[in-house]
Amino acid sequence: MLLFGIRIASYAQISPGRIDSLMKYALAKFKVAGAAIAVVKDGKVIHQHGYGVGSIETKAPVDVLTNFQIASNTKAFTTAALSILVDEGKLNWEDKVVQYIPEFKLYNEYVTENFNIQDLLTHRSGLPLGAGDLMFIPDSSNFTVKDVLTVFQNFKPGSAFRTRYAYDNLLYIVAGEVIARVSNMSYDSFIQKRIFEPLQMRNSSAGSLLKKGNDYAAPHSNVSGAIRKINLFDIGMISAAGGIYSNVSDMSRWLITQLNQGKYGDDLKSTLFSARNSGEMWTIHTVLPNYVSERYHTHFNGYGLGWLLNDMRGNLVAMHTGGLPGMLSQVTLVTDLNLGIVVLTNTEYGGGDLTFAVTRSIMDTYLGLDDAGWIDFAFERTRGNLNHVDQVTEKVWAKVDSVKNVKVESGNFTGIYEDKWFGKIEVFLKDRQLYMKSFRSPKLNGRMYFYNANTFAVKWAYQDTNCDAFALFSLDESGKAVSLKMKGISPGIDFSFDFHDLDLKRVK
Q1: How many Å apart are CA 224 and CA 116, to the nearest integer?
Q2: So where are the chain's domains?
Q3: Predicted TM-score (pTM) of this structure
Q4: Model pLDDT, residue 290
């Protein structure tokens, strides 16, 4: 169409039936147990629906009120909470973290003294990717927020301060502690009272404040081919980084509020956070490498405050993904089109690809693009990646099997080893076999299999996700182990299993 002599693109609308078809096809293709979607456009919900089951054991169907762990999509709620406090004059974005948390300590004095609130949120700390995530994954460790506040001094920086993007979860935990200290209420309570209640997100919960009687999806894994239910991840101390449980009905309210730059309610006369701070959250603070895209004509790529930001065919796109074992999600806002999409799933290896492929298919309709077959494309890409991962891990365990008769001087390796930030682990004999266990993360325990020279492959008792590891010992002149390094076996291991950051020294 022409307006004042300027050609304006006319964007198609997507029908609920088409969204249904996409979701059902993707659910079957990726063997996902259950999923839910909401699409909002111009302030209205045009489609929301649940598919599949919340649990393959109970067969309870997913509906629009079924709660999923939204994982790192929580981060946008954390930045919104800080925006509320900035609007109220209780803090400023440039305030130093040590003003509110004097005991906060990083890897050098200069960075500690100059680290501000926005640095907690923008993944530009200088710390390496996922540093310290092993403190909370697997779940059920006994690390606390107090431990997190000073743990960073034990890491070697991976880059100079504020020069490079490296995703970080622990600093969002610190951000949650800032919210707690400034507001004089827990992070979970702040999210409940200051965000969920005003927006009438009645069935959503933050961290420890789970609502009894609500419908919760169970996580699943199909990494071995057959889908199986796994344990629900215990949020513990990571509420501000990934602790929200929500559903597509409630999340649609969140999307509409975001697209209205903090305004909410039928008449949009209520304000959750200011348009100024909406803009702050949607401003690139950490630049990411741009990717060449003839399809979307993308010109920039970066991270704002709890949002990944880029442009697609001239439209600003703010999005984020979320992932915990067996729970994958994606939230996408095409701000210039007043379009929002949320997809929640409960199956690892498949769920993340479903959220990506369905979201792209819907976006393309509104961008006036042809059908790119995103679901089939994502399926083939994932199958190729999994085949590669399987080949690598199968070779490792085949080698383990081929050397199973090699005699190992177990006494050279048994003992207690300690890392400055992760604490102690023990290598010990059980039924004449070597085992390893962590003192502070009890799910990290498992048998050690000889692999080569001074290297063992550790198969953890925890198998909710693929995280088995190599243990590489250094020996003294007498052949006795004096230290231990570790790294993941699978090339597809989640970066949060930062075994490579451990520096374990024998202490006993």
Answers
A1: 44
A2: 2-371, 410-506
A3: 0.95
A4: 87
